[in-house]
Each structure stands twice: as structure tokens, then as C-alpha cells.
Known about the structure:
Chain A is an alpha+beta fold and 581 residues long. Chain A is 34% helix and 24% strand. Chain A folds into four domains: 2-69, Beta Barrel (Elongation Factor Tu (Ef-tu), domain 3); 114-187, CATH 2.40.50.100; 196-433, Rossmann fold, CATH 3.40.50; 446-576, Bovine Mitochondrial F1-atpase, Atp Synthase Beta Chain, Chain D, domain 3 (Bovine Mitochondrial F1-ATPase, ATP Synthase Beta Chain, Chain D, domain3, Orthogonal Bundle), CATH 1.10.1140. In chain A, a hairpin with a 2-residue loop joins strand 4 (33-41) and strand 5 (44-49). Chain B is elongated. The termini of chain B are far apart. The chains are: A alpha+beta (581), B alpha/beta (465). The interface between A and B is large, with 75 and 84 residues.
Amino acid sequence: MGKLKKISGPVVTAELMSGSQINEVVTVGKEKLMGEIISLKGADAAIQVYEDTTGLKPGEPVESTGNSLSVELGPGLLSGVFDGIQRPLSVLSESGSFIQRGVSINSLDRKKKWDFLPIMKAGASVSAGDVIGTVKEFDVEHRIMVPAKVIGKIDEIKSGKFTIEDTIATIKDKSGKTVKIAMLQRWPVRIPRPVKEKRRIELPLLTGTRIIDTFFPLAKGGASAIPGPFGSGKTVAQTSLAKFCNAKIIVYIGCGERGNEMTEVLTEFPKLTDPHSGKPLMNRTVLIANTSNMPVAAREASIYTGITIAEYYRDMGYDVALMADSTSRWAEAMREISGRMEEMPGEEGYPAYLTRKLAEFYERTGRTTCLSTNGDRIGSVTAVGAVSPAGGDISEPVSQGTLRVTKVFWALDAALARRRHYPAINWLKSYSLYHDDLEQWYDENVAEDFYDLKNRAMQLLQKESELQNIVQLIGPDALPDKERLVLEATKMIREDFLQQNAYDSIDAQSTLTKQYHMLKTILHFYDKAAAALSLEMPFDVIVNAPEKQRISQMKRVVEADVEKTCKTITAEIDARFQHKG
Amino acid sequence: MAMREYQTVSEIFGPIVYVEGVGDAAYGETVEITLPSGEKKKGQVLETSKNMAAVQIFGNTQGLDTKTTSVRFTGETLRLNVSDEMLGRVFNGLGEPIDGGPSIISKEKIDIQGAAINPYSRAELHDFIQTGISTIDTTNTLVRGQKLPIFSASGLPHNELAVQIARQATVKGKSGGSEKENFVVIFAAMGITNAEASFFMRDFEKTGALERSVLFLNLANDPSIERLITPRMALTTAEYLAFERDMQVLVILTDMTNYCDSLREIAAARQEVPGRRGYPGYMYTDLANIYERAGAIKGKKGTVTQLPILSMPEEDITHPIPDLTGYITEGQIVLSRDLYRKGIYPCIDVLPSLSRLMSLGIGGDKTRDDHSGVSSQLYASYAEGRDLRNLVAVVGEEALTERDKKFLHFADAFEKQFVSQGKYENRTIEQSLDLGWELLAGIPEGELKRVKSEHIEKYGRKFRK
């Protein structure tokens, strides 16, 4: 047992700690605050404490637990709301509205009984990762897997109702030792869970957000960064993704963000239905809420807690989407702790290992063949990391470190947000490197001309930005009609396609079919108008065509009617421009 | 506990005193320091180790020595006596009465650091606060439990705006007596001038608001380190009145820039690694510990709404203080020097301003069904008009199309009629929305893309000729 030697904010030093290991969890002080060893020097250990350290005194006891910081995995995670070190906030709230210190509670409910359905029989050979049975967790088939490093033959396997601590199976390993298997398993958060192999990226993670799915798609197993200044809509974009993306499981990490915003998520998600299953969104969601005023060390841990839970569901063979809002707060937590340890700072005071930590985190995403000897399961973890660069300037280390490892960049733009152009994703600065990986899928599942359409639309937008430079100098009237028509078309693309209202029940999400028809109709208008213009139809007539109004209403058309509506508009466009020609 | 009094001051460096041979000082513990002159000062333990405690002193360190100065460790963290009796009272930055009245005696002594509200226990916010100011109510709606800072700069009328909000704020539809009675203002001044403080005091007295207020005043000539305590005193009082006494509390914190500068002063004295512009790396966490003390709790009637004021150095919104604040608070009201120069009061620039919780407080059952549409239409039209001004500066107004000219004129009218209002002019939300429709009548109907057509008929038609 060690003793406290020095206390300075969230980092404390303890002496007489020889025999302890790096990343070992310890309890600090008489109140048994939870902490983790982050450096060792002789018998002295520097410890980051996951709770407020006010009131600690030198000489108070520090006890090792022998464990590294781990999360509890098993049925009961879904719809859970946890803090950064996986303490269930709903249980904590029973002892008061304010978070108290030194409370040690189990992450998962120990009393609840789950219906365990075995799929393996006694005598079967199993090894780590093999599914031995399932439990129904809401609508998700929660697959119970053989824990890491265990290889052997099933001795006994039960069926029926059990708590997560009950033994549901025993396995005799090669040395003849019997290993008891319960549904509850633990995994150290800082170590990635093993997989058989990483797979090629080939499926899109559809989000229902038009600018993303059409122009800057994210792939299952991929990673994207959303940097943007405050007020540019990061959180709205993140929650919108959490609501509508076609992943099976969502892990949402509120890392150092606003309490009231977490409350919004907490009140809204149980009421909303998952567009893919029709069940409450909360039933597929795990929330990690470590708000900005909760202890900074737990904020550092929250990202790892989240990704470990995501990996666990991936290992069952599911597509998991992880939203981290915001990774900048995570980086700042590292900076704060590093500063308290008086480490030599790197750029902007961040520790020199910041980029490594960012890369390690994003490398835990991917589409994988799961560890298993009984049948191939394919799962994926997709990460969407919000970045909050100081002053919105993405030349800072967190943005840069993130962009080096993520393949999708959604550039939030304060100027667009100020025009209330939401989502305020700048179409000229953003990029996705998954276009090629996903092309086949889009060809087969949306339409063969989809890539052509989106490339043409993007070229028009690019052309617009060139024309805007001229307009800024000489005014729009000075442009030739042909180019003014380009501006009309891009205005339609921007306002009637890219802009999307996250609060409108219909507009909030679009299927790719809807996106395809919308874009096609707009470009059809442009093509026909351009043809009519070359046949000397007056520009004013084109600009004032009533079909423009109809196009602007497309986003409010329900999915079922989109194709029909777009066909009608197309026909009207044909009629109008044909006629005059 | 045994007497823990030491005369072993080994070093005095800026506002920090190092005491040797203590051994059992608790982190965050308060101390009482007796100077050789007999004068007493308060302090707080910043760092503690086996043989040394670093203590920050609230107040200036003049007169301290390393020989006879005595430091007594109280065994307690910083606490504040709270009770209803605090209403109508004036305290200094450390929570000691300075109005000549008695000390607050109470069984309830609360740790001023506060604990984080469990996100799970927070209640959803939904009550629209009508401030009577068109630009706030219509386009940047404030809701109860929100934290909405005013980003200002030196010389701009943020104080006038703050008192006007404090004076006029009501919850719509329930502006009857009982609601008003439960409404209290807590005012925490950090490093503002005597003149500014008396401006607030006078206004509170004149309108009778003083008896429904609690004031914590740390003025420009008061010790700067005290400022680190002042907002926490105010918020501890606010939480008590809101969550124990069911009151609706509005907390005005001014000026947060001075608070941050004190934070920097301590960090520099401790020779910490500085972050941006010399502010410490933990400033985000520290500010969050203040700003996050706003909100509502399930099962409790009261709420804490925060209106922090900060002056942006060089009017730079990317400066660390407004920047970090903006990342924590739920929006911001930005004051503009340009509008001020045009003689417009309140000089709120709606374009960079934002209320993140707006959607929770507006709509048919709360304000009016056209609110969201009108707000976004006004905003978009004004933004377009403002952009056109830049173009006009280059090509002249004649080069604009008829349509563009209308937007240009709209922007001017919007500033002169909608943004601008009297210091005692209290507009209801209906008046503000109607005013919006009146101005939008200058824009062709086909361009009103953000309002629903049925709302144009219902509210806008009568203004369109």
C-alpha cells in the first residue's frame, strides 16, 4: 500500500508504490477515489484521478487493485448512459442530482436476468471469439463470445435465465483447467480487441444527410473528422448521424461537452424511432456522457471506454458507428494532465504523443473479420470525430493530427452557419477518399449514372466559385446568360439539395433514392434550360420558371412520393422548355 | 483537529505563499493568514506535498514576511453560508457583507466548488424567457436554464443591455405575480469599475429589483485573486436558491475577461506551462466548471440561467476567452462596434449571434407558430443584404438587380427598426414577430423561402401591399 506524497489538481503523486504497473488502477485516499498510474519513477507513482481531488492530504493511503482500467462488457450496455469510466449515470442519479465522489458501482446491472440461448453443445471445441450462445438485448442478438486467450472444449453449457455473473458454461482448456464463462466479461480499454483480419472497405455508412451520402460519403469501417468553430453545427451534425445512420449499434461519446446538450440527446433518443427498425433509437445506443465540468481524467478515459464498447459489438459481427464529440476536449484533457506532470510540451502545449494517440484511436476503427473459428462474422467500427479547433483555425495540432489519419473531412464553415446554411459543410473544402471504394456499391444499389450526376454537380459548384470571384468585382448582370444560368443551377443545388433541416421531420433524412432523384431533377432543369437558352429563350423566362419553386419543395416530399413527384417535375420542365424551343 | 498553525513561510512569490513542514494540508483547503501587523487574510491550498504547501492568497501580499507571518489551516474547503436572507444584500468578492448588514447565519454551508450536475438528472429546458428585446427574443431566443454570454468589447453598452434584460425578463404567458416574485437576479462583478458597479446598483434600486437580488462585488481595485472565488460564490448562491428554494435565478457574471486574467496570473506565478496567449491549458475545464452550473434538474422547480458578459480583447472572437466560452455556452449574443457607431441600441449583431437552445423554447404552444420561419427568414434576408453591401461598395448600387436592391434596403430597415429599440422599450414576442413581417413585406414573396405559405397568409399578408 502506498501513501500520497503530493496533490496538485487531477494528478497526484504517491510513494511506496513499488510493484505497481503503468496503467494500473488504484484507489486514492480515504474516500477511495479511482485513479490510474500514468508514470513511475522509482517507488513513486504519478496517478491521474478520475474524480475531484479537493480535500486529499499527503499521507492518505493509495491502494493498488492489480487491474488495468477496464470496461464491463455484456448484456445491459444498450440504452445505457455512462460517465467516462463507465459508471452508470442513472444509478448514480439515485443518490442525488449532483455527482458525488468516491462512489463505486457496477457498470452493468447484476440482478437482471437474461435469457441465454446456447448455440454450442457440450464437447464442442471452442477458442477465443467463438459465439457460444445468444441473449436478446432489445432487438439486438447479443452474442456471447468465448473470452480472449481461452481455448478448449465445452464441458457444460446451460440454457435459461441468468444474471450476467452466473456461470453459463465451463470450458476445459488444454492444460485440463476448467474455465467458468459468464456473460459478463471485462476488457482493458487501452488495448484494442483482437480481430482475425482487417477487410477491404466497400460499403457506405449511409447517414441520410444529402451532402454526406452524395458528395462526401463515409464507409463502414472508415473514419471521418468534422472540424469546425463553435456554432457551426458540429453537435447537430453528430446527433443527426447518430439518429439516422444505418449502423446496427451507435456509441455516442459526449466528451467534455455541454450538459444541457446531453440532456437533449437523453430526452430525444428514447422518443425517436430508428428509421431502420422502427424501435426507439435508444435501444441501439450506448451513451458516454462526460460533460465539460466532470473530472478531466475521466474525460481522457471516455474515448477509450467508448471505442472498447464499440469493438465489443463489432466482434459480434455488427456495424457500429461511434461518434466522439469532441476529440479536441479529449486532446485538451491529455494536455492538462501532461502539463500537471510537467512534461515537455509539444506544439501549442499539447504533449508530443498527441498525434500518436490520435492515430492509435482511429486505427481501432475498420471493417474486420471477427475472431472466431465457427463461421466468419464481419463487423465494423466507423468513427466520426468532431474537432473543435481554437478560433476555427484547423492548422492547430488536433485537427492536423486527425486529418492525417481520417479519410473523410467534413469542413464545417462558420460563414455558411452564419447564413443558416445547414449542415454547414463546405462543399469545396470537404473531401472523401472513399469514392473509389464505394463506386461499385453505388452503381449496383443506387443508379449507374449516380456518380456522373454527382461529379457534374460538383463541377458546377466548382465553376460557381470561380464565377463568384468575377461577380464580386463586376456584379452578376455583367455575366453572359450562359454563366448566369450556372449560378441559377448551383443556387438550386445549394439551397434545394445541400441545405437540409435537421429539425424537419421529413427533411431531416433522405434515402439515397431520394437524393438521386432530387439531384437528377435539378440537373435536368439545368440541361433543359441551357438547351433552351441556346435556342434563344429569354433568360428571364427561364429564371422565372415555376418549376424552380416545385424543385425547392422536393426536400419536403415524403420518401414514397419522391420518384413520382420528380417524374412530374421532369415532365413539366420538358414541356416548358420544349414548347418555347 | 489539532491546531494547525505554522510560522514557516519559506517563500512568497506573487500571490502564492509556500509554507514548509506542513505535511497534512488538504488540497483546496482554506487557510487564514495573520500578517505581522495583525491583519488577517484568506487563502487556499493550491498544491500540497509531504513537507510543503503552496497557498494562494486572496488579497495583496504586501506586508507578508517569511519570519512572523502565521498560517492557520482551517481543515475546511471554501464554503459559503447560504439562506433566503441573502436577497437584497451586497457582498464582496469573498462573500463577506459590505452593505453594513449582519453576516449571514445559516445551517447550510455549501462548498463553493460545486459538483457537476449528473447529465442524467438534468431536466430538459423548455421555457421561453421573453427579454423584450427583438433581436434576442426573435432570432436568439433565451430559455430558462440556458447559459448565453454577451460577447462585447470595451466601450460597448453591454451593461445597459444586461440590466435591461434583468429588468424585463419574464416567462411568457405566466407573467403574473407569483412568477415574478420567484424571479431573482444574482449579480457577480469581477474587476469592473466602481462607476459600472454603481450603475448596476442604481438601476436595481430604481426598479426595485435590488430586494430580489444578491450582489457580489469584486471591483477593479479589489484583489484580483479574489475574482477566482466571486463567480463560484454567486453560483453557489444561485444553485441554493434555485434547487433548494424553487426560485428562478438569473446570474449575471461580468466581466469574465477579468476572471480569466486572474487565472492567468496564478498560472504564471506557479510557472506553469502556458497555453494560448499565456492562459493556462486547463482554462477550458475551469470555465466549464463555472458555465456548466446552469440548467434545470428533474423534480425541482427552480432553474439557473446564466448571462455572462465578457469583453473580447481587440474585438477578436477567436481570442481564447470568447473562443473557449463559445465552446461551452449555449450560444452567444455578439455586440458590434459598427452598429454602435451607427447609433443603434442595442448593437446586437444577429449574424454571429446564436442561441443553441432556441428550438426548445419556441413554437406554437410557447411563442407563435411562425416564430421559427420568421426568425430564419429575417436572418437569411439580413445576411444577404449585408453581403450586398460589400458588393455595392465595389460596383455601386445602380449595378444591382431590382431584387438585390430590395434585400439591400431590407438590411438597412432591419437595423434601424428591428435591431434598434429604446432602453426602456419592452416588446412582446408578438410585437417583434409582427415587426419582422412588416419588414419582410419589402421582399418579393417568391423569395420568402423559409416561411411557410400558410404563415404568410396568416401573419404577413396584412403588411404586404
